[in-house]
Amino acid sequence: MSRSAALALLIAIAPLPGHALAETVAEQPEAAPYDDSISEAAYAQELEHAIALLAPGQKVLAVFGANWCHDSRALAGWLTSPDFEPLLRDHFEVVFVDVGSPQTGAGRNLDLAARYGVSDIAGTPNLLVIDADGTLVNTPESAKRWRNAASRSEESIYAFLESYTFDPPAVEGTE
User: Fold this and answer.
1) Are strands 92-98 and 126-130 parallel, antiparallel or unpaired?
2) Alpha helices (H) in the chain, listed in sequence order
3) With a threshold of 0.85, does the pTM exceed it?
4) Burial class of residue 141 (count of CB atoms within 10 Å of its CB; 0-12, 13-18, 19+)
5) Residue 95: which of 142, 56, 40, 138 has the closest Cα?
């Protein structure tokens, strides 16, 4: 490529004056909240405690992941970001649970996820929405569909969580 062609290409792909590149690409936060030194019994107590703390209409958001996993760190980054703080504070108790490396047979705390109906975990992260009765609100399949969390937008993650902030309307005749 000639020098003038390379310069023309750089000019064509450069941001317009006054527009920073960061404005066109959302910064993705990352966090590493998964603690592999906590026992399954301690994590179980933490989840039970979170369930006990729920205010009416709130749910527990149990995030089963690992610090080595880019998708787990990305999801945790959004969940610990200031943009998510009001939604999570008002509607969820968040618990991060380390699962080790289930895809290599070195998984941890997998029986804990199975208590809520999510078994055969083959990857990370997994996102369980649990109500005050200790019942899984989302499906086991949807809980496992977060292995691409790093490629999801902030808006899509927020919308998913927001969809669990409303209780379904009571069916007439069941009250």
Assistant:
1) unpaired
2) 3-13, 21-24, 40-53, 70-79, 85-91, 110-115, 140-143, 154-162
3) no
4) exposed
5) 40
Amino acid at 174: T
Enumerate residues 6+ apart whose C-beta is below 8 A from 44: 112, 115
- The domains located in the chain, with CATH, are 29-162 (3.40.30.10)
- Tokens representing residue 90 in the block: 């008002």
Q: Which residues lie closer than 8 Å to 56 by C-beta, 6 or more apart?
A: 132
User: Encoding tokens for residue 74?
Assistant: 């990305």
- Torsion (CA) 83, 84, 90, 92 in degrees, nearest 10: -170
The gap from C-alpha 27 to its chain's centroid, in whole angstroms, comes to 16
d(CA 156, CA 172) in angstroms, rounded, equals 32
Could you report the per-residue pLDDT of 22-43, keeping only the tens digit for each? 333 457 778 889 999 999 999 9
